[in-house]
Amino acid sequence: MNVLISWLGKTDIEKMKQNELASIATLATRHTVSFDEILILANAWEEDWQSYEDWLNKRLHIMDRPATASIVHQSMDSPTNYQAIAAIMQRHLEHLSTSNNRIYINLTSGTPAMTAISVLFGKGIYDCRFLQSGPDNSVEEVHIPFDFAATYARVARTSISAKVMAGPDFNGAFNDLVAQSASMQVLIQQASRLALTDLPALILGESGTGKEVLATAIHAGSSRSAKVLKTINCGALPENLVDSILFGHVKGAFTGADKEHAGLFEQANGGTLFLDEVGELTPAVQVKLLRVLQQGEITRVGDSKTRRVDVRILAATHRPLISMVADGTFREDLFYRLAVGVIELPPLRQRREDIPVLVSQILAEINATFAKIPDYQSKKISDSAINFIKEQPWPGNIRALWNTLSRAVLWAKSDELSLQDIAGVQLQLKSNSQDNHSLPPLVAGFDVQQYIDGIKEKIIVAALEQTGGNLSKSAKLLGLANHQTLSNWMKKLEIKSDHLP
């Protein structure tokens, strides 16, 4: 059977009263296909439905067309309610497609929302054909030249790839930050108090510990939260453009400056500027940044006029700034300007109590991302896998954990991630650099046993930190026969319990 399905439009009613054709009547009487059924969906103008049915069926009878037109009432609060329209179209198309019907959909009558839903369901799921009429009552068959399912899958894959590459995206409120561990609870208390001030702050921590997440939370908890937060990675600033990026430029200031440009300090005026990896700034840029912090003024490149800016500075780095100040690679005066409030994020290996909640958050976000894949099964994680994760050192911290879980979800054959799933995708990065323990000067009186004991002490403490203080696991890591041997070493080297994490 050939079935035409259409929404009822106001123009269809008005033209009927003038005994003239509009969209539905045009397609019903002029298309080369003679329809066997015409299903008209309507939610308005109920007083005219019977008149319209009688008028259209009379025309079809006169033209010896077999179809019977019927109007079916549809309950919805608005003709632009996408959810209601989708439910209605899916119900009718699913019913019609169960029989051996060839379904045609009229795209001319109804609201744009009705047309959009009709195309999505008709093309993407039910293999319908599409018709529309012109102002001159012409009939046109519409060909939609792409496969919705394939297009969706391709776009979903691209979206998933971008999301996985971007890493975790936790919200910026303090109560959303994971803080089961004592160290993180203290840190969040400090950050919350710091947010209430307008002071500059320096966030320290290894790569991947979440310095930008914490900076976002500090901004969100501050009096500037309604204003903009601008972020710049200082390690990616090209030195020949740094002045323009930070302070802006006027038209004609240099080749290619074809219009005025407000730098990041002006863009963040009234808000916050987050300088990520501030330890990467060159000495020349450090001088310029110090001047802005001292005077609260910037000058665009090529301009003689100074401009006042009101910007709170948050900075972060994984580099040892105090050592860099000592060796002269980072300006001492700039360091003290930035380090009014200092917060150091602990690495993941020092906040193992937070790992189960972090894993739960990350896995929920990965599941939401991968849900775009057809037939994707949401993943959970076993207790043994979580315990395995807690034992790992995670040199890349939360970012490394995110990437590992993403790979595990991608390759897992079951809906529950096992210890083997995690271990199988964990990357073991090896340093290309030489051993950190360079040989000491060999001079008269050198004590080789003391030197060896120093190395043993460092490696034992590292093993204890990695295993959470478990002597049996630490002994196994060190290749010792049993934990008693390790205990004897610790006693001899006077490694106290305060070395344990």
Structure, explained:
The chain is an alpha/beta fold and 501 residues long. It folds into 4 domains: 2-142, Rossmann fold (3-Layer(aba) Sandwich), CATH 3.40.50; 182-345, 3-Layer(aba) Sandwich (Rossmann fold), CATH 3.40.50.300; 349-425, Helicase, Ruva Protein, domain 3 (Orthogonal Bundle); 448-499. 44% of the residues lie in helices and 14% in strands. It contains 20 helices and 17 strands. It has helices at residues 10-17, 23-30, 49-62, 82-97, 112-124, 148-166, 182-195, 211-220, 242-247, 264-267, 283-295, 321-326, 332-338, 355-370, 383-391, 397-411, 419-425, 448-466, 471-477, 483-493; strands at residues 2-7, 37-42, 68-73, 102-106, 129-133, 139-142, 201-204, 229-233, 248-249, 261-262, 272-276, 297-299, 306-308, 312-317, 341-344, 380-381, 416-417. The strands form 5 sheets. A 6-stranded mixed β-sheet has the order 3-2-1-4-5-6, sandwiched between helices. The chain has a 5-stranded parallel β-sheet with strand order 8-11-14-7-15. The chain has a two-stranded antiparallel ribbon with strand order 9-10. β12 and β13 form a beta hairpin. α4 runs parallel beside α5 and α7 (182-195) packs across α8. It is elongated. Residues 431-437 have low confidence and may be disordered. Keywords: Activator, ATP-binding, Cytoplasm, DNA-binding, Nucleotide-binding, Phosphoprotein, Repressor, Transcription, Transcription regulation, Two-component regulatory system. InterPro entries: AAA+_ATPase, AAA_lid_NorR, Homeodomain-like_sf, HTH_Fis, P-loop_NTPase, Sigma_54_int, Sigma_54_int_dom_ATP-bd_2. This is Sigma-54 dependent transcriptional regulator.
